[in-house]
# Entry
Amino acid sequence: MSDSAWTPLAADPTIALGPLDGRYRGEVAPLVDHLSEAALNRARLHVEVEWLIHLTEVGAIPGAPTLSEAEKTYLRDVVASFGPDQIAELGAIEAETRHDVKAVEYFLKRRMSAAADVLGETSLPAASELVHIFCTSEDINNLSYAITIRSAVTEVWLPAARKVSDAVAHLAREHAATPMLARTHGQPATPVTLGKELAVLAHRLRRQIARIEQDEFLGKINGATGTYGAHAISVPGTDWEAVAGAFVERLGLTWNPLTTQIESHDWQAELYADLARFNRVLHNLATDVWTYISLGYFVQNLAAQGSTGSSTMPHKVNPIRFENAEANLEVSCSLLDNLSATLVTSRLQRDLTDSSSQRTIGVAFGHSLLAIGNVTRGLAGLDVNAEAMAADLEGNWEVLGEAVQSAMRAAGIAGATGMADPYERLKELTRGRRVSGADMRAFIGDLGLPDDVAQRLLALTPVSYTGYAERLVGHLA
# Structure
C-alpha cells in the first residue's frame, strides 16, 4: 500500500511533530512556562507594562500622567492573567499585524482602553501612547528573552543540574573506599576506588554549575540603532541613558550601554557554551557508567529503572537511561553550539537571523533537561557489585608493577644496591601477560629490597593499592 493512502495525521493538533512536545512532553513541561512562544509573549507584555510604569514614575516625559497604585496593579494584572484565552486573542491580532511585538502593543492598548470598566475614572486610556514609546521591537525582545532564559536557568535547569550532580556526589561518598580496577586506554591500570572516579565527575559537573550560576543576563533599551536618537530629539531634557540603565536593572538584568539595534547576544553565547560544557561532562558520566554496567560493576535494579529490558532477550536490563541521555545531550549540544556561534554575529546594525535562531532555545534546553532527568533516574536504579570489582582486581596483579618499580627507584635513591633498571625488569615480568599473586610476591622477594620496603610491597594487593583515593573524595563540597 502506498503511504499516500494512509489516513492523514496532520489534521489532529494533539499529534506532535517533535519528541519534546510528544513522547517526552511530561518531562520537559516545566520549561514551557519559560521558553515557549506564549511565555515569550507574556514576558513582552511584562516589559511593555514595566516600561510604561517606569517612565511615569521617573518623570521621563513631561505631561505624562502619574499612575495610581490601582492603575499599576491593573496593568500588571494584564501580565499575571495572561492565559489560554489571551494567547488566542494575541494570536488573532498577530494574524492581522503580521508582527509579533506590534501585536503585543495593540493587545496592551486594548486593555488600557477598557480600564474604565474595571477602575472607573482612570488616565490609562489617554496614556495609551506611552505604550512602546521610544522602543524598537528588539528593545522589547532582548529584554524578554533575557527574562525568560534567566527564569528557565534558575527555576528549572539549575535545580535539575544540581540534583544530578548531588546524586553523583552521594554515590561517590558512599563508595569512596570501594576498590576498582582502573582502565587507561581500556587496559588494566593502577587501581582506584569507584568513589574517587565518581567524585571526579561530580567535581567537574559542579564547576560548570558554578560558572552558570555566575553568568550574566544583559539587556538594553536604547532605540532603533542604539543611539537614543528619538528619545533625545523628542524629550531633550531627560537623561535617557540613566532612564534606560535604571529600567534594565529594575528588571533584574545587567545593563549593556553599547549596542546596535540589537543587544549583542554575547551573554547568550557565553551561557550556551557553559551549558554545552556541562552537557559534555554529563555525557562523559553516561558513557562511563554504561561501561561500568557492561563490566558488571553496576547492576541495574529493574524496578527502579522502570524498564522491561530487551524485547526478545528476557535476561537483559538495557542501560537505556544512559543511552537516552547520550543522544539527547548530543542534540542539545549541537543546538547550543549553533546558537553560540551564530548569535554573536549580526550584519551591520541589524539582521533577523537571530530571530529564527532564538526560537530553538527551548529545544536546546529541553533535550538537556530530558538527559539530566534520565541520568538522575538511571543513577537511582544502580546497585554496586563490589564482588565483581574485587574479582577483576584479583585477576590483574600485574597492576602492582608501577608500585614495585617506583619503590625500587626510591630505595635506590636512598642508597640501596641492586635497584638498577626497575622499569625494564618489571616490564619483562608483566608486559603482555597475566601475573598471579604468587608470581608478584616471588619477584618482590628476589629483588633484595630493604626489609621495610619489601614488607610493604609483600603486603600490597591490587585491592589495597588505591593510594589516597578514599581521602580524595573528601574534596567534594
Notes: The chain has three domains: 27-130, 137-218+260-385, 397-461.
